[in-house]
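Hey, I was hoping to borrow your eyes for a little while. A protein chain has come my way and I'm curious about its shape. Take your time with it, there's no hurry, and the full record follows here:
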Amino acid sequence: MSDDEQTYIQALALRLDPTWRRRSDEERREEGRQFAEATAAAQADGVRSISYSSIGLEPGVDILFWQMAPTMDALEAVAARLLRTGLGRWLTVEQSLIGRIGPSQYVRKPTEQEQSLFGGERSRYLVVYPFTKSTDWYLLAREARQKIMNEHMHVGHEYPMIRQALAYSFGLDSQDFVVAYETDDLVAFGGLVRALRGTESRRSTVSDTPILLGIHRPIEEILGLLGGGAG
């Protein structure tokens, strides 16, 4: 990515009003169809949007969109279209994590594992959360921070089956970063998280919640689980 290019990401977590499930089958199917069409139209705004189901997995979250766009305006346009169309009128934004992709201070040449965004095949699970470091961390000398991050990255490289993405949220959102992981192996992911808890970098962590977990599914499949599919 060149210096003049901008790439924004958003984890958009939506909660469905439970009373929607008591609408007629015909109403749910039609409203689901409208919502699916609005989701597909995201590409017209230059937004890459990938859908995940969090039904019964996260309190207050049913649909999770992991999105990439060239502008913040494009993310706004897509969200507005989704929320005014069909099923969208029954949805509430439960969480929205926003960040900007930029070069890392600590990695000279990111590997595919360290910059998993939207290329290649999707893994089964997405885990995304906000992350904030302490003031003391930013006051450390660059050499000291690099040494700590080298240990952190070494641990991550021991789990090549887990891909990650890091976005900067400074000035855009409440957290410092948005961190996302893709994996087919939740047991391995649990091992990675536990191993990272034992590194020096953990001392500088102020907050890293809420953690959002989603299962990758096409939007039509999610609508079917919610009761608004075509079948």
Summary: The mean pLDDT is 91. The chain has six helices and nine strands. Residues 11 and 104 are 20 Å apart (CA to CA).
